[in-house]
Amino acid sequence: MQTVTLNNGVTMPILGFGVYQIPADRTEQAVTDALAAGYRLLDTAAAYGNEEAVGRAVRNSGIPREELFVTTKLWVQDAPAQDNTRRALEASLAKLGLDHVDLYLMHQPFGDVYGQWRAMEASNREGLARAIGVANFHPDRLLDLIINNETVPQVNQIETHPFFQRGPDHALMREHGVQHQAWGGFAEGRNDLFTHPVLGGVGKAHGKSVAQAVLRWLIQRDIVTIPKSVDPGRMAQNIDVFDFDLTDEQMVQIAGLDTGKTLFFDHHDPEMVAWLGKRRLDG
């Protein structure tokens, strides 16, 4: 498995398995199948409601802990954010059945971001999280966090796919040593991604599927990606992307698909800010 090295020296697989929107009662089997297929990066979140199932699959896999890279995420916390952030991480660790996570991400750029981040820095120093980062931070919010805090985030996980390629975000992250990680790499099939003629043509040229072509495109941009599936066959296909390379011409073809706009939701939309900022997890 190809890896990337984060700005604190921790290595992270460039391809992993995400469990967003997998129901809790199906997550354990999905993660078990993913581990059997060779995935070692697992991405979950407190907000997904399936950390316990991920933890069971990890414990039952027999795979040594040091061979796994487990990510979970902090939801928006009420003040005092520093105390609540520590409790939230301890709750996630208890559900996962782990004494540490490999990466802890601030899930949304809302609430007491600075209080949350400083608590995450403390958890990193204590070894409860080997690396810390953020998710859904646009360049202005990311740069503000970098300038005003001691630790530069190791990762920023953002919506990234052929129709929203995040070029300026990518450049800023490269400049400051933040690893770009994609969520929604397949755009959840929107804009007819899986039947798109350009993506289909790129895949066909290599004897690969559209999904494999998209994953290869992300990997060649040095973007960590976490495709999701509950089908073992597709899991195996998605991880089989290290035996070919897209040409420069093919990379340019895919670059031409960028609309520069989200296909999901805008973190600058006041209604979305209000909804995310006020939402609290049960317990």
Q: Would you tell me the structural class of the helices and strands?
A: alpha/beta
Strand order of the largest sheet: 3-4-5-6-7-8-9-10
**Strand residue percentage:** 5-15%
Rg (CA only): 18 Å
User: What oligomeric assembly is this protein in?
Assistant: single chain
CATH superfamily: NADP-dependent oxidoreductase domain
Which architecture would the CATH scheme give at its second level?
Alpha-Beta Barrel
Question: Which word captures the global form?
Answer: globular
The structural domain count equals 1
CATH topology: TIM Barrel
Overall helicity:
40-55%
**Biggest sheet, open or closed, and with what strands and sense?**
8 strands, parallel
List low-pLDDT spans.
Answer: none
* Number of E-state strands: 10
| Terminus-to-terminus distance | 37 Å
Average pLDDT, rounded to a whole number, is: 95
Structure, explained:
Helix content is about 40%, strand content about 15%. By secondary structure, it is α/β, with parallel strands linked by helices. It has one domain (about 5-280): TIM Barrel (Alpha-Beta Barrel), CATH 3.20.20. The radius of gyration is 18 Å and the shape is globular.
Give structural attributes.
globular, alpha/beta, two-stranded antiparallel ribbon, 11 helices, 283 residues, eight-stranded parallel β-sheet, TIM Barrel
Lay out the secondary structure:
Elements: E1 3-5, E2 11-13, E3 17-18, H1 24-37, E4 41-43, H2 51-61, E5 69-74, H3 81-96, E6 103-106, H4 113-125, E7 132-135, H5 139-147, E8 155-159, H6 167-176, E9 179-183, H7 197-205, H8 210-220, E10 224-225, H9 232-239, H10 248-255, H11 270-278
Parallel strand pairs: 3-4, 4-5, 5-6, 6-7, 7-8, 8-9, 9-10
Antiparallel strand pairs: 1-2
Helix pairs in contact: 1-2, 1-9, 2-3, 3-4, 7-8
